[in-house]
Amino acid sequence: MATIRDVAARAGVSVATASRALNGSGPASPGTVELVRRAADDLGYRVNKAARSLRTQRTDTIGLLLSDVRNPFFSDLAYVIEQAAAADHVSVITMNADERTDRQEAALRSLATQRVDGLIVVPQGGATLEVPTGMPLVLLDRRVDGSPAPVIQSDNELGSRQMIDHLVELGHRDIALVAGPQSSSSGRERLAACLAALEGHGCTPRPEWIVEGDFQERSGHVAAAALLDTTPRPTAVFAGDNLMAVGVLSEARKRGLRIGEDIAVVSFDDSRWFPLLDPPMTAVAQDVESLGLAAYRALKDLVAGRPSGDVVVPTRLVVRRSCTTSSIPARRSA
Amino acid sequence: MATIRDVAARAGVSVATASRALNGSGPASPGTVELVRRAADDLGYRVNKAARSLRTQRTDTIGLLLSDVRNPFFSDLAYVIEQAAAADHVSVITMNADERTDRQEAALRSLATQRVDGLIVVPQGGATLEVPTGMPLVLLDRRVDGSPAPVIQSDNELGSRQMIDHLVELGHRDIALVAGPQSSSSGRERLAACLAALEGHGCTPRPEWIVEGDFQERSGHVAAAALLDTTPRPTAVFAGDNLMAVGVLSEARKRGLRIGEDIAVVSFDDSRWFPLLDPPMTAVAQDVESLGLAAYRALKDLVAGRPSGDVVVPTRLVVRRSCTTSSIPARRSA
DNA sequence: GATCAGGGTGGAAACGTTTCCACATCGAGA
DNA sequence: TCTCGATGTGGAAACGTTTCCACCCTGATC
């Protein structure tokens, strides 16, 4: 591959001049610029990022550490962030923690040796986030205690309240919660907000109606299996993310329950698939576009040395048909 | 951040020795190794990849160019490939072409300046794939004419035949096809195989029953809109990927058609969501794990200078309930 | 006509590694 | 005792950039 040396030689100028001409980083006569550009084109020259990084101490690359790429919520976030970064000619190295703290550590080590300019992390609960000191860091979707990094997240309190209010309005009083892992802030916040909202309506759930999952589909199954065997059975189940909702849904189906009639199933987190389910699922939609853009912008600020703060993005209730009222016992029909 | 110089100083050895000790790349006494290791640990030393790459001409990074991360088929592939690479301490830079050729070009340019060790690409149809000469390259899911790069893909011929045979066996004879873009090899192969299979059964479809989409959800809507207005109406629609199937499904629903009763809708490409749809969708499942691993292994071979060849991964028909027989006219009940 | 400002240019250092080469040490074999 | 090979070590070059600095012009200002 051609180096800047080759380009300079072909253009008949020095390496220094070639560099300035290509980057516009210093004085260079229009003629020279043209000459160097042409030489670079002819040779198919592409700057060597490793060499540039070594010299400039920047990589024009950021790290994105997700907890699960296969969760559409996160893959959509990755999409938005990658798009925004590409517009700035910044590359994104996406890694996966698979909801595991050891993977998170490994990924962070790897990102550190890459000397990425900054990091957007969806942190694993229960782990201390070991990031090289001085490395710009933005937390996405979840917070971690004691970290000074800005946090970009949905308004979990609002979203939870919207859904609980909706359910109660429909007449539900026996509402079960499949919470996210309580080691994660989003899991905690959503559960707490749901409980507070329920409390406000005077319908505190039975303890056995609160089950902790891990944001993955399997745990939705397991939780539903436990929940649906209780007597009395709850009339509605609110799952803490889209994957667990899917788990709950298929477990309920397997038991022959008609969703939306025998029992309501709803989800925090919307999904493009929800409108097509049987029946279409009511959900609290997160504004993925805003979340991703805010995270990228926050990181960009940090990298540029500007201060940056937390962002809370509002949620929106999307009512579909997975919680019609027919399942509700008469006592509440008043 | 500590450099190897600092480590060497702290361990009281030369830089050269420190490097050898840390990498095991040359002779070093056990005592020295221990000493250097400890010094590195104390300092929290992480090798600077840019510097290493500059010297070694390797980056231990590969590029993965996808056509659409938000398509679960591809995000699952990304997951598998990233996992496999991580086990080798290889990083993956994932980029998105968004099914657009200009984005593909931009991404390839960017990947070239990163000097990735190799490239796994899901190529856009209709574009010539400009990859730096000598750069190891593996094509995934789709082939491109004239490229000598190994191709890893599902057995489109088998999958198409499995599905057509199944439909015909159920009594369908009026089968419509929402094909993938004919600029992509997978789109072409699947359509050709479907037509051949239909021919074999003596039921060549009417021209208006063959519609070309672009693998995205919207085009499924559009195709279905056209298809469902024809008279006679086809009794079954076979979509070329999971996203277009979703589009067809929701369009059909919007028109009040009962899927699996009034009309059958099936898909090339399975999805974790398909079992939950209304009704659960019959699909040709691709073996994503095998595809991803094969692609990574092929690239690894190429990077190591070993030859590598095409891989065709078998598909599997997953029968659910989106194509029961009630929609089929009597003429075929014999 | 001398001075000055500033644009354009080239030489060379520096970034942090790895690795080639030369050298020293040591034990074993002649 | 001398040589030899193996082993461990350090110096220094090289990878491809960017950027500091010094230099040479040119044209304008005094």
CATH architectural arrangement of the largest domain in chain A: 3-Layer(aba) Sandwich
**CATH homologous group name of the largest domain in chain A:** Response regulator
Strand content of chain A: 5-15%
Q: Give the count of structural domains of chain A.
A: 3
Number of strands of chain A: 12
Number of helices of chain A: 11
The level of helicity of chain A is: 40-55%
The helix/strand order of chain A is HHHHEHEHEEEHEHEHEHEEHEE
Structural class by SSE content of chain A? alpha/beta
CATH level 1 class label of the largest domain in chain A: Alpha Beta
Contiguous runs where pLDDT drops below 50 for at least 5 residues of chain A: 330-334
Biggest beta sheet attributes of chain A: 6 strands, parallel
What would the principal axes of the Cα set say about the shape of chain A?
A: elongated
Radius of gyration of chain A: 26 Å
Task: Describe what is shown at a glance.
Chains A, B: Residues 2-56 form the HTH lacI-type domain. Two copies of one chain form a homodimer. By secondary structure, chain A is an alpha/beta fold.
